Protein: DUF1059 domain-containing protein
Organism: Mucilaginibacter ginsenosidivorax
Amino acid sequence: MKTLHCADAGFTCDAVVTANTDEEVLTIAAEHARTVHGTEVTPEMAEQIKTLIKEA
């Protein structure tokens, strides 16, 4: 299981994304960033965010 803490990506947010793969985490995180934070995740941002994904 993979996890990403939204706060690790620089947001003041307690959300944690959990999924089976890095790609699933990135998809869910991008949707969260768009709907909750009003931020579109660019390919460059996605590469940086990918480094923050941890094994649960």
